[in-house]
Amino acid sequence: MRSTMMDAPLQVSRILEHGATVHGSAEVVTWTGAEPRRTTYAEVARTAARLAHALRDECGVTGDERVATFMWNNTEHLVAYFAVPSMGAVLHTLNIRLFPEQLAYIANHAEDRVVLVDGTLIPLLARVIGEMVTVRHVVVVGGGDPAPLLAAAGDRIAVHHWDALLADRPAVYDWPESDERDAAALCYTSGTTGHPKGVAYSHRSIYLHSLQICMPEAFGLDATSRELVIVPMFHAMAWGLPYAAFTSGASLLMPDRFLQAAPIAEMIAAERPTMAAAVPTIWTDLLAHLDTHDVDVSGLREVVVGGSACPPALMHAFGERHGVEVIHAWGMTETSPLGSVARPPAGVTGEDSWRYRYTQGRVPAGVAARIVGPDGEVLPADGTSVGELEVQGPWVTARYLGDETPDGEKFRDGWLRTGDVGTLSADGYITLTDRSKDVIKSGGEWISSVELENALMAHPAVLEACVVGVPDERWHERPLATVVLREGASATPEELREFLAGSVARWQLPERWAFIEAVPKTSVGKFDKKVVRTRYADGALAVHTVTVV
Amino acid sequence: MRSTMMDAPLQVSRILEHGATVHGSAEVVTWTGAEPRRTTYAEVARTAARLAHALRDECGVTGDERVATFMWNNTEHLVAYFAVPSMGAVLHTLNIRLFPEQLAYIANHAEDRVVLVDGTLIPLLARVIGEMVTVRHVVVVGGGDPAPLLAAAGDRIAVHHWDALLADRPAVYDWPESDERDAAALCYTSGTTGHPKGVAYSHRSIYLHSLQICMPEAFGLDATSRELVIVPMFHAMAWGLPYAAFTSGASLLMPDRFLQAAPIAEMIAAERPTMAAAVPTIWTDLLAHLDTHDVDVSGLREVVVGGSACPPALMHAFGERHGVEVIHAWGMTETSPLGSVARPPAGVTGEDSWRYRYTQGRVPAGVAARIVGPDGEVLPADGTSVGELEVQGPWVTARYLGDETPDGEKFRDGWLRTGDVGTLSADGYITLTDRSKDVIKSGGEWISSVELENALMAHPAVLEACVVGVPDERWHERPLATVVLREGASATPEELREFLAGSVARWQLPERWAFIEAVPKTSVGKFDKKVVRTRYADGALAVHTVTVV
């Protein structure tokens, strides 16, 4: 039996129209270092119409052509977020922090036709525009000399200025009806190995994700909310917050390029956000600033932390010293990105709530989660079985852009393999401990390298410990523990092994040990396990083997 | 460009699985007059699987056959809400309060194959089961002698008992994948003229509506919420609250047949709901009870009132005397039913908030609203232009069940004509004043009969006033004011007309006046304007005509 419901497609222009009418007076504030710039949702919608006219009539954008942004978080970027998908084109948010060759690769892979660039980012774009061979138009927002762009790309590109380009264009646009499963926006993962991979969000996925983001179990947004969106709009669609804002009527506060602790603190005091979203490093810096400066953050109820696990000390400090609740969330570019949010269960408060708040949290209704073991078997949700987290849902990607069939390394039977390893509890809480590439596959069971490292670093003689899996004839892989001792301290492999036995199952205890001067690190300070494995394979480590009797 | 997102259909079984796993320990409480019955979402899901097996294997339900319910709000009704759509069949919630001929009509129109009935409702069902000619199975929940059913329907039907029917069946069911646009549930309007009309909700509409219901601008539900669902599950899908509960993890409290103020007050004190939903009459009765009994309602933050406009005095009294915020909402069977919710705009609190809270409120993102004038022209959202409210969206019906094309009286260009007349403000607030059939169409403009009545009843000599439109050669229609004077009071039409001129535009002032003994009323106490119009047409009223100079 067919339903009698209207066949109203879920599309970005619907979110835009809703925000522009029902919440037309909601505010958009862009920080400038001095006076903030202010506008309203109604005005953003009018500007979006002007941009759409300009892109169509001056840049020749038709159909589903790609329009890229190379921008900070500001009003004009927000306008592009709505104008480009609403006109039926596809928004491609270029991550300004990618390496030049990666930027050129993704612009060419997506076949970007237009790039909107902040004037302050012209020098960065000029380094790569010469290699972005499909680009024909660059639109410069704000001041800035476009000469370097023309020097690099020659007459392949036409350079426009935002204000002049939009002037005198109609403030309304007859947004077309879209197939809700068509692409609305593109984002590439910044994978550390191989080329970045594209994820194409649909109008449908953005719409559904926006509703979910507004729910109390996620970020709880309504017209009384003021969102400070620090997470870059070039990273996983700024966690969907711009679209959620127009969905709910929450006002939007954006820091533009002023991402240091001092201007962010100033913005919080002046604009009184009720919630803010950023990666942990931003909060670490802000905490140090708040601890040493008198800043009024009394309007701020919650900050959402994602991107990587948040140090518990940071969560406690914000709560205890500044009355701000830090909420842990997990997601990926591949998941739009809302995957899970760590709010405690009903009735659990105070000290008891921390063991839930440290986790990656629970999935919302639109996401299903399961834990899959080394042999592809679905493991019980018992809080102890360790496996790879796999997720599924209408805003989770099924493949990467350009792949005809899903990559088996990344997808399994219609589920996304997240590459994260951990447990799922009976009440739905996800706890992630390792990346799957860092997990040690020993005799059909998985050993968490992170768990071994944390246990080892609790030993008084140990400064740092890095555990990696190394080939083993009998068990396929076994752990190798590399240890940096504290100055003047000493310990034997046998002693450390016995110490570990106090907190880890015996079959997980490493047989192979090496004392090293320092753990090799990546450019962002993480343990570089690839280097450790290579050194071991090359015989460059002095390995002590503990004989197990 | 096609998106890369998963093509995960939005379906009821997805909501069920989410609630049963992530929120498996959320509570379902059914009042019994004595000890409440308690269960969990996980157990509801297991029972839903058992019911689905029973319906398929014992009642022969296949494909999209209709399974009806004739039940109060209780656990078993909730189980049916999930089991029937999840197995691919269509849930038809029979409104036990319809007239017998209406009940038979809708059961036959929907071709119901099975009816689930509460044992206490057997006598009521027995009066109509004989006419429900497609029904083959009746499942009795709880005790009750099924003899009257068999007496009425003979061997056309088999009667089962819920407990025996479900016993020993598997607690899991491999829910099929549905086309999300297929019907999941059916509800008939209880139109006062003509046959009831069917609305078939889709899996998609239920899913989207559930997300929106949970948003803070609507009912703000999460796992800490405890919903007291008084609005019957046989009326507009209990406002979507059962599905929203499983979507968000909110616990569900249900009064079964105990709808009087005393047991509801007892349930509130014992089970501490955080929110409750019902029509105004329930709240009027409860208020009287709370004012005269010592009941702890401190857990109750908000009650949502819909179905008809809520008297302002009731809203104030709950807030001032019992600390409970009454939230006004508007919707129809045709709108799933969430149409709008009256929460004040950001920053508006205290006394200022009332002028927003008295309105029907603002639409959420999934609903678009417009006001259309007498000649079909879309009127400005200026808070003063009066027209018919039309709505549109993915959970608004496009037609009635069985109609090949939408009825032009009820639908226009893809919009639902709500039959409600009022204004839409620039900031999105809907204010409804009349039903369109009660509005007076005078010279291409609309005059609100309700506004004239309210203005007249403010005159000290007037006890009641009923205003209807009567034919007029020049203006098409003009208002006729029928007035009941207070005992001992007197007033002339000229005096009353001048009094009205103080609050109403002159062109709206009635020329025709009649003093009557009493306003004719319908069975539910509303002014029966049809009777007034007929009396006028028949010349049964003594009409004074005021000559306008």
UniProtKB/TrEMBL annotation, chains A, B:
Listed A to Z, the keywords are:
Ligase
The UniProt record lists the AMP-binding enzyme C-terminal domain at 451-526
The molecule here is called Fatty-acyl-CoA synthase
This protein's species is Micromonospora sagamiensis
One matching Pfam family: AMP-binding
- InterPro entries registered for this protein in UniProt: AMP-bd_C, AMP-bd_C_sf, AMP-binding_CS, AMP-dep_synth/lig_dom, ANL_N_sf, ATP-dep_AMP-bd_enzyme
Gene Ontology MF, one? ligase activity, forming carbon-sulfur bonds
Q: Does the keyword section mention Ligase?
A: yes
Q: Among its keywords, does the record have Ligase?
A: yes
Q: Which NCBIfam families match?
A: PRK06187.1 (NF004837)
Q: Please give the family membership noted in the entry.
A: Belongs to the ATP-dependent AMP-binding enzyme family.
Q: Which Gene3D superfamilies does the UniProt record give?
A: 3.30.300.30, N-terminal domain of ligase-like
Which residue numbers delimit the AMP-dependent synthetase/ligase domain? 17-401
